[in-house]
């Protein structure tokens, strides 16, 4: 079982609860490949009863059918939900529209009074869900520090979107403990848990096993290997390593290097549009 909850995350949660008092709503960013795995129950303490807009980010990495399915899931729970690929310029305009729709009456009342009402939203989510990329997209500038790995954003940042909206970016926070193994590994697959604290070979073999259950052609087509007649999952990783020429002295297969190739291919969408849930 994967369990990793650095001390700074607990500190971040407490700070978020304090800063939440300044916010009107929350932008809850989840990875479209495993949205429900990205839901952190600890955020309930932060959000309270304030409005939430769920953002299915990295929507380009799964099929539209799955996107629509997850949208219905959140909407049926009485939540607002949008989907986008935050790496594409201008795609986050839909978030601004949703925010202004929620507070339409308040904005109009203040406008008639000649008051410039500022909407403040906190961006929350697990690490590597794309929160800072969304902030940058909203601002059309690289104001927030981003990176394709867990734990890049380390401190809160307030940024101005337009005359009526300000956004607070926050560091990603994981669940304190993973009671469900499937959730833990889904988050590891998409990079929400730092690779440095994982057994990368174990993660890769479990990912391969899961992908074969989804569609065996994913592995056989990408790597040109036979996915039949094996005793242990590690054998498939060995076949991929041999096919890719990941060898070390003595003719042994470099399993760690092979594992990194498979995981990277999945995260970059090179294995196709894949939904883990």
Class derived from helix and strand content? alpha/beta
Question: Main sheet?
Answer: 6 strands, mixed
- Which overall shape is indicated by the principal axes computed on the Cα atoms? elongated
- Average pLDDT for all residues: 90
The order of strands across the largest sheet is 3-2-1-4-6-5
Q: Total helix count?
A: 11
Radius of gyration: 21 Å
Beta-strand percentage? Answer: 5-15%
The percent of residues in helical segments reads 40-55%
E-strand count? 6
Unreliable stretches, pLDDT < 50, 5 or more residues?
144-155
Order of helices and strands: HEHEHEHHEHEEHHHHH
Give structural notes.
With 277 residues, this protein is α/β, with parallel strands linked by helices. The chain is elongated and about 75 Å long. It contains eleven helices and six strands. The protein has helices at residues 7-19, 44-47, 64-76, 93-102, 104-112, 131-139, 181-190, 200-214, 217-223, 234-243, 255-267, and strands at 25-31, 52-57, 80-83, 119-124, 157-162, 165-169. It has a six-stranded mixed β-sheet with strand order 3-2-1-4-6-5, with helices on both faces.
């Amino acid at each position: 079982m994967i369990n990793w909850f650095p001390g700074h995350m607990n500190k971040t949660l407490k700070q978020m609860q304090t800063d939440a008092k300044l916010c009107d709503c929350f932008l809850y960013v989840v990875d479209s490949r495993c949205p429900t795995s990205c839901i952190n129950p600890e955020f309930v303490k932060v959000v309270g009863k304030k409005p939430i807009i769920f953002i299915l980010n990295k929507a380009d990495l799964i099929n539209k059918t799955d996107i629509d399915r997850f949208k219905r899931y959140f909407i049926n729970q009485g939540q607002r939900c949008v989907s986008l690929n935050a790496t594409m310029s201008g795609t986050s305009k839909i978030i601004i529209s949703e925010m202004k729709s929620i507070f339409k009456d308040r904005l109009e009342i203040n406008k008639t009074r000649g008051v410039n009402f500022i909407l403040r939203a906190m961006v929350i989510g697990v690490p590597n869900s794309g929160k800072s990329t969304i902030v940058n997209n909203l601002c059309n500038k690289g104001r927030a520090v981003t990176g394709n790995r867990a734990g890049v954003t380390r401190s809160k940042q307030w940024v101005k979107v337009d005359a009526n909206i300000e956004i607070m970016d926050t560091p990603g926070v994981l669940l304190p403990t993973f009671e469900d193994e499937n959730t833990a590994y889904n988050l590891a697959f998409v990079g929400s848990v730092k690779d440095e604290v994982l057994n990368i070979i174990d993660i890769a073999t479990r990912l391969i096993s899961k992908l074969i259950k989804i569609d065996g052609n994913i592995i056989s087509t990408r790597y040109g290997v036979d996915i039949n007649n094996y005793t242990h999952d590690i054998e498939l990783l060995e076949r991929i390593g041999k096919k890719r020429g990941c060898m070390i002295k003595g003719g042994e297969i470099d399993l760690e290097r092979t594992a990194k190739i498979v995981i990277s291919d999945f995260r970059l969408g090179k294995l196709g549009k894949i939904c883990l849930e």
